[in-house]
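Notes for week 9. Today we move from apo structures to complexes. The key idea is that a small molecule is not decoration. When we ask for a structure prediction with pyridoxal-5'-phosphate present, the ligand SMILES becomes part of the input, just like the chain. The input block below holds both the sequence and the ligand string. Read it once before you look at the output, and try to guess where the molecule might sit.
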Amino acid sequence: MQYHSTRGQVKEVGFIDAFLMGLATDGGLLVPSTIPVLTSEQLEEWRTFSFQDLMLAILSYYTNGEIPEDELKTMVYDSYSTFRHEEVTPVHKLTDDIYLLELFHGPTFAFKDIALQLMGQLYSYVAKKYNRPINILGATSGDTGASAIQGVRGKEGINICILHPNGKVSKVQELQMTTVQDENVLNLAVEGNFDDCQRMIKELFADVDFKSEHHLCAINSINIVRILAQTVYYFYAYFRVTDQRPELTGTPLHFSVPTGNFGDIFAGYLASRMGLPVGKLVLATNENNILERFVKEGVYKPDGFHTTYSPSMDIQVASNFERYLYYVLGENTEQTEAFMRKFKESGEIGVPEELLKQVQHDFASHGVIGAECLATITKYNDQVDYLLDPHSACGVAAAEQTLPAGEAVVSLATAHPAKFNESIELCEIKQEFPAPISALFDMPVKKTEVDGTIEQVVAELLPFYDRTKVK
Ligand SMILES: *Cc1c(COP(=O)(O)O)cnc(C)c1O
């Protein structure tokens, strides 16, 4: 399996090179050259696999034979040994028809640990095997940063710098990043919002000389490995639901996904292209609803930025959208490039009617406003004694609003409620923090504040990279 860019100028890149490239050098995103399609018999063979073995089975299609099997196996098992649940991503039956896929049992209590624990192992592998310096650079709306830092803190040959919008991530998210004291971690607290952080990261990566001189690596969901790792739990959830409901085997199962950068839901789309029986992918957003408007109206156009109870979804321009656009355009790189160029020039993309039909076949969407989010948290806490975090609540609320009653849906629970206590308190619910989260409040903090200019970011980055450069 090789990879190429959605914009067509980067071709035939191997797995490790694709992993290291992150954003393609032509500004597009890397996609696999072909998507493996499983038969229902092959799919059934995977039913009894553990999460780890399912991950290995799926990765084996994508790693291009570049990593010896035993080494990949060690990495996968090490990645998920840090999880607090032996099933890694267990499924919890919330109601008769809503199944919660709990993705928050990793070190930072959010779903991003699933991909980023593995990527931490992969970066370590590459640093050792190829003796290549790794400088990870990323932007976060809160959870990616913490997960990525946990994935590589203290690892030899790796530096990580994370930009987060100062004061716009939750207290626990901030502490999870800034209480890490390892020398190889730099936290930049940026005056601005997540989109400002992401724009600066994109600019730095688009500067090909800067990127190669400093061996920059991306952990944002522009990295194809994140997407690949995230396909695994869609399969896992399908097996667990159909274990409980054998009559649903082989029929399309709906998934509801709290969405920001479109990475997680795109992984579901990929799983569906691989042959998993997926029904509707419910795209749950909050007031930052560019994607909801796209699914409903066929126009992709940012409007004002809103601060919400679900900050990890407070995103205007969704990086992974381009990957879906590429597929919905029939894998036509020229058209994808033209659409993205038009977006850059005019600030919006409109798709023709027949494409919109396809989009609406693949997705349903609902933007969950703040009051609805809190009401959903309260409702499930009162009725079934299950405390949803605000992101997971958006997923559940969107499923309720868009799907016919009585049809089974897997709703992705993307974070633990303790990460977002600010919102939980607004519901007048008192929660007990898990011990690893309570402990954060007594730890010393290390962060560097910068204004929203790229010059300031670079001024902090250069000495950080220099200190490990071989003189
Ligand atoms: C990142 C994140 C999301 C959004 O995921 P995307 O892949 O960016 O769409 C949703 N919920 C939580 C808790 C997150 O951390």
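The CA atoms of residues 51 and 66 lie 22 Å apart.
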